């Protein structure tokens, strides 16, 4: 049996998809990953085969910097970073405008390359990133069965009454201007219409007999897999046939420096990371660091592309590096401060760690609202929250009410007992009860 994983050349996308593939590898099955060269080392570390497939002009091996991107992508990234400094609606509007050009890179040529890879690999199952639109276009045009993995809040697949790029809900601390929201909604509607025309034009060229899509952003695979806990999903949102994976938490290699730091003290610590993109906002990282210092807490900070000099003098017992093993540290953390990315949220929930979410863009707002509604975290606006407000939010996260703490512990137990890789395998290989040890994610707790 062969599993083909199709992923953009971005570490944050490949890591959870590759983790799902370990369920096949542990059974002795063949796993092939189609992605670009920047993430080749990740594929190798998982022990999978790789075939080269470029799905976009940009890439991200772990920490993204505009100056390391190809021409065009660098300016797009700088524009995005600048928009996050202005405000949330401005960021969403910038992203919506960029979708007119960057969601399907060379769609027909890329789709034909995807179809060539499928013919070469001859997989029994295919797992594809939901945001790899050109790849999903290829599979749709080729009438090739596949599972479509949403790596984000479920609103990444809009349902009735929603439009892609417009958050269906907001955290309490956010109060966007109604007129600005109306303009954003109109822009997102125009982008959706434009993207659907682009999808249909490419689909017609690839398969002249195909029925056109009414809404390309609402297209999905034969099986929809959501890398998200069902317990956080609003049951009022009616989804197409699907399975919730909960989380795709990976095993990490032992890091001696991190292990020594964890063993050096029993004092609680807070883990801070804004991921591979938004770590560039070192001004916000600095305010969180100031809040943590004021509380007298230890901290582990994954700097990413943030400028360490912006953080001022840091306590000697803090762990601060460009990259840190997030899964390992979350297992031991008392709380986490995050931008609300899918990996950070699902990994924190698996570890049973409350969060302070500072959402900047895309589905992070809806994800932050879901955590806030569940009582598992505090959401604050990253551009305006003061160090004192951040300190208050961290204190509240560290002292969840008993009811919320009990429910978070139950969610953590569920996610650890049946990891996402097992749920994905059983969804894709029906009538097969997995014999894989489901406890490996919890082995070092």
TrEMBL record:
Pfam families: UDPGT. This is Glycosyltransferase. It comes from the Bacteria. Keywords: Glycosyltransferase, Transferase. CDD domains: GT1_Gtf-like. PROSITE patterns: UDPGT. The lineage of its organism: Bacteria, Bacillati, Actinomycetota, Actinomycetes, Micrococcales. It comes from Frondihabitans peucedani. Belongs to the UDP-glycosyltransferase family. InterPro entries: Glycosyltransferase_28, UDP_glucos_trans, UDP_glycos_trans_CS.
């Amino acid at each position: 049996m062969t599993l083909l994983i199709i992923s953009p050349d971005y570490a944050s996308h490949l890591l959870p998809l590759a983790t799902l593939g370990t369920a096949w590898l542990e059974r002795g099955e063949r796993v092939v990953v189609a992605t670009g060269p920047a993430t080749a080392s990740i594929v190798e570390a998982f022990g999978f085969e790789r075939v080269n497939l470029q799905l976009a002009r940009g890439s991200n091996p772990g920490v993204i910097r505009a100056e390391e991107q190809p021409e065009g992508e660098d300016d797009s990234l700088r524009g995005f970073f600048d928009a996050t400094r202005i405000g949330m609606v401005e960021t969403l509007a910038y992203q919506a405008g960029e979708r007119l050009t960057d969601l399907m890179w060379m769609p027909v040529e890329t789709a034909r390359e995807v179809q060539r890879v499928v013919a070469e690999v001859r997989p029994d199952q295919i797992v594809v990133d939901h945001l790899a639109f050109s790849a999903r276009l290829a599979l749709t045009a080729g009438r090739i069965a596949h599972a479509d993995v949403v790596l984000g809040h479920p609103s990444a697949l809009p349902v009735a009454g929603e439009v892609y790029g417009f958050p269906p809900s907001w955290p309490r601390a956010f109060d966007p201007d109604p007129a600005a929201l109306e303009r954003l909604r109109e822009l997102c509607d125009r982008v959706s219409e434009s993207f659907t025309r682009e999808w249909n034009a490419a689909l017609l060229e690839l398969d002249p007999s195909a029925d056109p899509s009414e809404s390309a952003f609402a297209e999905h695979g034969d099986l929809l897999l959501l890398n998200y806990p069902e317990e956080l999903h609003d049951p009022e949102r009616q989804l197409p046939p699907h399975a919730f994976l909960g989380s795709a938490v990976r095993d990490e290699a032992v890091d001696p420096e991190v292990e020594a730091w964890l063993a050096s003290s029993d004092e609680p610590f807070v883990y801070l990371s804004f991921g591979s993109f938004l770590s560039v906002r070192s001004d916000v990282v600095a305010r969180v660091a100031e809040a943590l210092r004021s509380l007298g807490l230890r901290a582990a900070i994954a700097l990413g592309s943030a400028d360490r000099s912006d953080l001022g003098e840091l306590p000697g017992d803090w762990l601060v590096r460009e990259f840190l093993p997030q899964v390992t540290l979350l297992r031991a953390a008392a709380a986490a401060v995050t931008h609300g990315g899918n990996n950070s949220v699902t990994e924190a929930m698996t570890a049973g760690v409350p969060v302070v979410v500072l959402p900047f863009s895309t589905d992070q707002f809806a994800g932050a609202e879901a955590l806030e509604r569940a009582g598992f975290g505090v959401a604050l606006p990253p551009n305006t929250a003061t160090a004192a407000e951040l300190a208050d939010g961290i204190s509240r996260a560290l002292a969840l009410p008993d009811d919320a703490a009990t429910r978070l512990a139950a969610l953590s137990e569920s996610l650890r007992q049946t990891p996402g890789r097992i749920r994905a395998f059983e969804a894709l290989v029906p009538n097969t009860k997995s014999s894989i040890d489901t406890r490996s994610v919890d082995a070092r707790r």
